[in-house]
């Protein structure tokens, strides 16, 4: 690997160890990961027992998908500096994002023992308690967090999500809307909080208030794709035939860090398992012989389920943040940041399977993407996807208050038949829970 100017500067002969570390950290913050890694390694070459360099290099390794190396590096840092709360917290983050929730919990508790006011560790502890189906303990942790750090905007947002995910009454939804409002007031850069507030108001039946949230947002930021899309979703404009690329990219780049824990552990998300089980009944015993495209791969939840069937497993997603998480999870031979329909059009007869778990919920009219998928499949290939149910017998779709589209069975069937698919199977399923209620979906399998 060629050494860049920034790497040469970090490794300069005149820099003290503190300067080398500061420059590496700054490069890390700026996203210059090659330069940052070079800097940390330069410092460790002369001071192999430097806790900060070991810790930050561990964080960087996890970002690059080398989570086992990250764990070993941060554990070395903690062996040298056992009262290092940030390192305990970040080791917990590695475990959490690798699905080792009990180990993550232990790390966050050690971070809090070393630094009782470490509100990031307390927020993370609340998240993993919730993820382990211990909502009572999680609620206590969230309450402690906001008592300890009432100005922590992200804490209000997390409590809003908790109340929405576990709502057992109208009052809980009201409280979640208030939390999202507080989060936005404290940090008007937290667009997810504003979007969540508008959605909560709409679900509470306060439709005009929801529209006012998005209109006020658009008055400050007229070109904001999220505000424009969500205003249409709440009945304040003509719904587009599909979600704007900028909307999808902005929402999911911001959602990448917490995507898995929210869907899998808090919403009981099951679309990947349902889709792969449906495919397996048609594909037969896995022989690692198929070329498979995970279309809208997100953080890569489908990868471990698809891998036994695939000789080549590729993923494409519009969100660079999601692709980074998929790289960390591993399992793919190829990952691409790109728009789904264009990606399919560019690869004629390239795939044996195209699978799309809850991605086409951001498409209204399915005709174009169905035709693109048909063209990208080989003869005998399968398209498998999920969408949310619109309980309507006619050939219709509509944009819901969540910002996702719902589809009538007739529309799904018509789009696939017009695209040229032969056998089409559309079955009702429960995709996840939301606001304490099941989300009804269609599981669709279509043969070319």
From TrEMBL:
SUPFAM superfamilies xref list: S-adenosyl-L-methionine-dependent methyltransferases, TPR-like
Repeat region (TPR), residues: 51-84, 85-118
Entry keyword set: TPR repeat
Entries under Pfam families matching the protein: Methyltransf_11 (PF08241), TPR_16 (PF13432), TPR_19 (PF14559)
Entry keyword Secreted: no
All copies of domain Methyltransferase type, residue ranges: 293-385
Domain of life, per lineage: Bacteria
Protein name: Tetratricopeptide repeat protein
Organism: Lysobacter cavernae
